[in-house]
Amino acid sequence: MKRKWWLLIKCLLIPLAVGALSAWLSGNGMETFSQLEQPPLSPPGWLFPVVWTILYLLMGFSSWLVLTSEAPAHEIKRAMTLYGLQLTVNFFWSIIFFGVGMYCFAFVWLLLLWVLIIGTMIRFYRIRQAAGELLLPYFLWVTFAGYLNLGVCLLN
User: Fold this and answer.
1) 122: domain CATH number?
2) N or C: where does the chain have the smaller number of CB atoms within 10 Å of the terminal CB?
3) How far apart are CA 61 and CA 12, in angstroms?
4) What pTM was computed for the model?
5) Per residue of the chain (156 residues), what is the pLDDT tens digit?
6) Number of domains, the chain
């Protein structure tokens, strides 16, 4: 039982660390972002870190549900490999968009992330329904982020 709790803590910390490192490497990207021409429905800047923290926690918990499931080891490995890949792509999106300011390339990168999230959701759902469902807010936020990203790409 103690091992499962330790695994949960690691599962929660991994996406949080990925997000924090990505934000740190992106520099003062939110400051630059606030000065850009933005599409309608753009939320205030303070909302982004709040939402991302919640999403990273949901991702971590979802991955824990997969890792502690009774599914065959090869299915868990496939799902977690895809999860790691989407987390890696997620990591680089912030750097591409905020750090480097390549807004149009970031949108194409975000499309790749979107596809990887869908794949991860499907794999997680097959292993443990709740694990896939917990990624739905992430998918929806990245979809909204795609709208914002495309808007910034076209307007700037």
Assistant:
1) 1.20.1260.100
2) N
3) 6
4) 0.95
5) 678 899 999 999 999 999 999 999 998 877 888 899 999 999 998 999 999 999 999 999 999 999 999 999 999 999 999 999 999 999 999 999 999 999 999 999 999 999 999 999 999 999 999 999 999 999 999 999 999 999 999 999
6) 1
